[in-house]
Structure formats: structure tokens, C-alpha cells
UniProtKB/TrEMBL annotation:
This is S1 motif domain-containing protein. Residues 157-217 form the S1 motif domain. It comes from the Bacteria. The lineage of its organism: Bacteria, Bacillati, Bacillota, Bacilli, Bacillales. Belongs to the CvfB family.
Amino acid sequence: MTLQENTGRIVELTVARIADFGYFLTDGEEDVLLHHNDNDTNREFKEEERVEVFLYVDSRGRLAATTMKPHVTVGEYAWVSVVDVKQDTGVFLDIGINKDVLLGKDDLPVLESVWPQKGDMLYITLRVNRSFLIYARMASDQVIQEISHSATRSDFNKNVHGHIYRTARVGSWMITAEGFKGFIHESQRSKEPRVGEKVEGRIIDVKEDGTVNISLLPRKQEALDEDATKILEYLDSRNGAMPYGDKSMAEDINVRFGMSKSSFKRALGRLMRDGKVYQEEGWTYKK
């Protein structure tokens, strides 16, 4: 293979000659520059010395070498972080060298609201186009399946966290820190998470194939605490009185509090039992 054909890979080359700004490395047929800025070994090389480098294309479109070990290479996969987002281009990823790699918008969801944001993590590999430019490619569902581990019935109801690797209206798919491949049905999330977003949830079903169903919704007790807090905060903002009670319309409750009427009634009932609020003529008052 030529040096260009090894773009995106780690190769071992020989120092052909030394310049003020770096080293020219060779495979015996072609040369490539290892600039001092791309040498992170803190040492000087000698002519004829063998050096292991990663080949990439620099910002000027030239083949270049770096001793920096990338997190990912062509044919291999790894988790990398998002460092920038450009609406008209895509997202840029830190693969561990001086140049970030692009994951193009054509490889991202149609809805920009679920695009990865800075700090999100993606499981990717590198691909090289016909012009020998390096781009990122997200792992397919099959690749995720290959790295996943099977859950057991003992994992049921376990709290888990991990990153989203695919999302759609019907639901989202994630890989947990334990390596479980999980599906989050749309009914088990309050909003559609971003690709690459870290989420926390719990296992609500373990399938025969070892994959799991996950819920991102809080447990009933946690949800009750959160809903009750919302009601109390709203009461505080209105000097302890609000025109809402257990007879209020479901639509009004949803608009004001962002919760269902049943959730509202459960939280309100708890606050009444705890002696924190009372109702009178359709209004609720804080004690």
C-alpha cells in the first residue's frame, strides 16, 4: 500500500532526513513530513531510525504524520468526544491528534435538536474517501451488538447509565456502562435524547437475547417528590394560593405544570395528607 492508502492508519516509517521544522519519513518509495508540532515524544530522532506514526491529511490538504496515538483508526472503533458543532457541516470530534475529524451532517439525524452537543460521546470509526480525506462514521447497530454483553434477570430494575447511539420517534437506543444494549421506548422518556448524550435510567425488562428495555422516567416516589415540589414552588410564586385543584381541567394542569392530571392529583393528595396545603372552592392554598 502507498502512504496515501495508509491514511488513517498507524505505520512504521524510517527517518530519511532531518529539517529545521521536523523530519521527512519514508517507506522506501514516498516521503511524508513529521512536523515538530506533531512530535509528542519529547525526543529527537536520528536518520535511519524507525518511527511509529499515524498518517492524516492536514488543514492544507497535505499528507502528514504524527507520533500522537489516536483513539481510533480505520477499521477500529472507540468512544470519542464532540468538540464543536457546525449546523451546515456536522460535528467535529477529538480523536487524540492535533486535527479534529468531521462527522458529516448526512450521517447525523435529520432533526438538529437531537444532534450531539459539545462534550457528548460517540462510538465511531474512521473512513477515508477517494481524495484520502478522513471522516468519522458512527458504529452501526451490528457493531454495537458485537461489543455488547448480555444482561441477566438479576439485572432487572437496576439503575444504569450510558450513551445514546441512535434515536428516533419510536424510541432511543443506548449502550450502558456495563455493555448492555438497551432500548428506550418513546413512552419511557420525557423528551427525545441527543445522539451521544449520557443518560441515566433503570432496566424495566430483560429480553431473552440479553438486551434490555430501559426507562428514563423517575421512579414513582421520585416523580411524586418532583411533582410535589413543582406545586409548592408555584404556590410560593403566587403568595401561597393558586386557582388549581383536583377538579381542574387536565389541559390546564398540563400547560401550567407539565404533568398529567393523575400525577397532579397524586402529588396534591400527598401534600394535603402531609398538612402542607388545603383546598377551598376550587383553589389550593399553602398552610
